[in-house]
């Protein structure tokens, strides 16, 4: 597997609420894409316990996937509605419970290119 320069290892965070119906699928998506692109990224799971934790973590809903602290959804950094609940993503043709896999691929490639 490839690693970035200087031993930098990207970190993928999967943030979720308790009993999120899409958490397992999000984690499986992360593992599949990480393997597919051949990047040795560390995977961390983070449980968001309540609304205060959601605000502190700048949590946009469950599941949220971040690479090196940045949400993989393009434009997510402009969303300031932090919620302790489910998240929907605007897919190519409809709303979806999981982010587009291409967003994760691109985020991992970008992370690998940064020292």
What does this structure look like?
- The protein has a single domain, classed as Glutaredoxin, CATH 3.40.30.
- The protein has a 4-stranded mixed β-sheet with strand order 2-1-3-4, covered by helices on one side. Strands 5-6 form a two-stranded antiparallel sheet.
- 30% of the residues lie in helices and 19% in strands.
- It has helices at 23-37, 51-57, 101-113, and strands at 11-16, 42-47, 64-67, 70-71, 89-90, 95-96.
- With 115 residues, it is α+β, with helices and mostly antiparallel strands.
- It has 3 helices and 6 strands; from the N terminus they run E-H-E-H-E-E-E-E-H.
- The two termini are 17 Å apart.
- Strand 5 (89-90) and strand 6 (95-96) form a beta hairpin.
The count of domains is 1
Determine the number of helices (DSSP H or I, runs of at least 4 residues): 3
Helix content: 25-40%
Which descriptor suits the 3D outline? globular
What is the H level of CATH, i.e. the homologous superfamily?
A: Glutaredoxin
Overview in brief:
The protein is α+β, with helices and mostly antiparallel strands and about 120 residues long. Helices cover about 30% and strands about 20% of the residues.
Structural key phrases:
115 residues; alpha+beta; 4-stranded mixed β-sheet; 3 helices; 30% helix
What is the secondary structure topology, with strand pairs?
Layout (H helix, E strand, L loop, with lengths): L10 E6 L6 H15 L4 E6 L3 H7 L6 E4 L2 E2 L17 E2 L4 E2 L4 H13 L2
Parallel strand pairs: 1-2
Antiparallel strand pairs: 1-3, 3-4, 5-6
Helix pairs in contact: 1-3
């Amino acid at each position: 597997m490839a690693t970035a320069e200087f031993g930098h290892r990207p970190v993928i965070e999967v943030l979720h609420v308790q009993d999120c119906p899409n958490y397992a699928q999000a984690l499986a998506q992360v593992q599949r894409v990480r393997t597919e692109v051949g990047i040795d990224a560390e995977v961390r799971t983070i449980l968001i316990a309540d609304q205060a934790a959601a605000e502190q973590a700048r949590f946009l809903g469950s599941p949220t996937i971040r690479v090196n602290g940045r949400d993989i959804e393009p434009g997510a950094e402009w969303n300031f509605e932090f919620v302790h609940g489910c998240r929907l993503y605007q897919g190519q043709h409809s709303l979806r419970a999981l982010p587009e896999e291409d967003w994760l691929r691109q985020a991992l490639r970008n992370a690998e290119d940064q020292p």
